[in-house]
Amino acid sequence: LKAPFLDAQKEAHKYVIPNQFTDVAERNGAEGLNAQTGLDETMFFWSMPENRLELWAWLESGRLADVVPREFYKERDVVIEERRMSTDSNPQGRLFEQFAATAYVAHNYGRSGIGWPSEVSQINATEAMEFHKKYYVGANIVVAVVGDVKASEALPVLEKYFSRIPAGPKPQEMTTVEPKQFAEKTVAIREETQPIYLEGYHRPDYRDPDAEVYDAIGDILSNGRASRLYRSLVRDQQIAAVAVGFGHYPGDKYPGLFVFGALPLPGHSVAEMRDAIHKEIDKLKAADVTDDELAMYKTRTRADLLRGLADNQGLANSLAEYQTRYGDWRELFLQLDKVDKVTKADIRRIANQVFIPGNRTEAWIETEAPAAEKPAKNDGGAQ
Amino acid sequence: MKSLMKIALAGMVGVALGGCHHAVQQASAPVAPPLAQQSKPWEQIPIPKLHDFKPHQPTRIELKNGIVLFLQEDHELPFVHGSVLIPGGSREEDPAKAGLVDLYGQTWRTSGTAKLNGDALDDLLEAKAAHIETAGDEDSTALSWDSLKADSDQVFSLAIDLLFHPKFSAEKLKLARQQEATGIIRRNDDEGEIAERESAKLVYGADSPYTRQPEFATIGRVTLDDLQAWHDRTLQGMLIVSVSGDFDPAAMEAKLRAAFESLPPAQPAPARHDAFPGPKPGLSFINKEDVNQSNIQIVGLGTERRNPDVPALAVMNEILGGGFASRLVQKVRTELGLAYEVGGGLGFAYDHPAEFRVVALTKSPTTVEAARASLSEIAGVTTRPFTDEELARAKDNLLNSFLFRYDTREKVLAESVRLEFYHYPPDYLETYTAALEQVTLADLDRVAKRYVHPDKLAILVVGKGDEIKPSLDELKLGPVQPIDITIPMPARPEPPNSRQQEPPEEKQ
């Protein structure tokens, strides 16, 4: 079967000018031409000199409206190669993939973002096109342009090209809901790699009224050298090189995980990380954060939003994301009202409600020397 | 090396996000159906003339003592950023104390000043969403600051105090040493990190100022006196001070003059006399058990940016391994489907020869095939004639995206500082782009033959030995040289921070 397939591939190749799309884009000054495929959404983004706005609209709308899966099976091999790089051959990649797969039993957040090997290697061009047809419709796409453009001149150009994309229907939302976790879970990887510790707690999605409370907790715990985890685990106890707690993994459109993580210093164990993190969580539960800590979170959030405005690409991505999520890009700025409303009591309430053992998945790498029958090779020793 | 804390933090959060947001370098999915390809409909789309764009140049002020100030006003957002760039970096450190500049870069800021220790400085700045940071690099160290306009006077004063009156603390040196030790013990965990580091050693030599690495023993020798001595010496150099953002230029100039004008004449950096013999040709291998992909590095000696052949080399690089249309990507990724990541070219650094480097990442069983295909494309630049089409495409790629190098005032300022630091003429970018436009096929042919020597390249493969079939011997590049990357561990089992050489300092 393989031989006729390869022959057909060769035959098809005659009609293909490889990479022509990217070639036209690059010749016209494309900068940062890339895409993100995430569990929540896909995003296609690049910058062009301003006189190429119309060319960009033609190219970008064209690949949404008229895509042809040329050389699909070679590109599939390339994606499998990406998986080997970012996950299979990367200790942190392996750990995070196992972590999410264990924390979720029903929701797709437990599935590998890039795909499990047997699935990536079997997806066919027909299935890929079905996905494209279902999700790449007007009702499900937001286009954002930021830069030296006038809306009155740019909008007619965008309308002319992007209106060619079929309007809908808007695809159904996913209906699977992750059941409440009640069993504490652990993932232990024993390998030659140096230790890493993670733990995650299920939390609600980005629409939850308490979404900003989680942001506040993440900021107070791990933003900078005045943060609690840095001061406790890194500066004072001197057991970790890095200690953080952050927002939502592996996504935030659906309920994700609030994650704590630490890299132990040489000679310190993942168990010490776990105990020290739990002590910090207990403090959040037992006493309010200080007024200064809460004020610091609010000031930094406001300033960082302003800083983000300096970058055209970043701003375009944010506008598109907020429009997609909330149906209104203004929410990017309106969220500051919700930030201002976070109270010390909110933080304590969420800590008590969410950071509990039954809602926890722990995952770590413990260093294990190579097996005895494999005497130290040229890479042996302290790896 | 950047501060480990930042790398690991970024890594950790990056992986967390990366799990659901891996960036996809996308290739295929062209728009037009095959038969329409001759018609090239995109060429019908009007491309208006780009309106005249003059990058906004910063004001340059040279003080009598040789210190240079750059002021770049930008009133779009209410922030002020500043930086003091100080010549001298890790390539100048004592090899027996490798890691000193990393430790200095961390300890300087975390220690703080006599008036305000580092922890108090953290509290004060974080409450204002402001930053003051210090960092060590290969050829320089730097102090930078950043704040909202409303806080900019106070943050500037704090930054200047830290610049001139640091008080290095034993406790913070210990913390920095722990960070450094963590970097050492973790340096063999990631395949890509091993491949890049060890292949650079093949080019420059393992003990070269550009590649030598900190070890437990070398960071253990660094004392507080070393940090103070480094500081005192480098602060006498040709500092470059740059400020950008929302400020009044006359007031800012007066403040900078007050801070820097009274310093004694700046001392020029002593010339370096490094030798760059280039690699010993051959094939090296590092075994890593926990991977299923080989990291192939093909390396040699590059050149210096001052070299007048650099514009032609930049065009050659674009053809060999730059964009999606490059020979390496077309062959190894698109045609053979052997790699997600493949590319590279002949590097040029501002004041020393960079590396020639081509990288391909492929599954273990196709290591030999991918290496062979990459080597063949490299050799191809000296044997397969460049075409008019390749030349035109490469020039378009480079020239049409060039404006993204100076599309913000911040980037224009950074470029000015860079040119000043390495003593390049201020109009370098203009002369460089003009030279790019002039590159001919004959130039390409000449520089490829002159600078790309397939027989002088070294090849390093990091991968899982028993999965690499056919074996590396098939490449017929002589005996495969194993490289030992065992980390020399400290004599005592305790972490190296227990070898404190300074008396404990009283807590402030």
Structure description:
The complex is a heterodimer of chains A (383) and B (508). Chain A has 383 residues and is of the alpha+beta class. Helices cover 48% and strands 14% of the residues of chain A. Chain A is built from 15 helices and seven strands. In chain A, helix 11 (270-286) packs across helix 15 (344-354). The longest helix of chain A is centred in the C-terminal third of the chain and has 18 residues, at 291-308. The two termini of chain A are 43 Å apart. The model of chain A is unreliable at 373-383 (pLDDT under 50). By secondary structure, chain B is of the alpha/beta class. Chain B is built from 16 helices and 15 strands. In chain B, the strands form three sheets. A six-stranded mixed beta sheet of chain B has the order 2-3-7-4-6-5, sandwiched between helices. In chain B, strands 11-13-9-14-8-15 form a six-stranded mixed beta sheet, sandwiched between helices. The interface between A and B is large, with 112 and 115 residues.
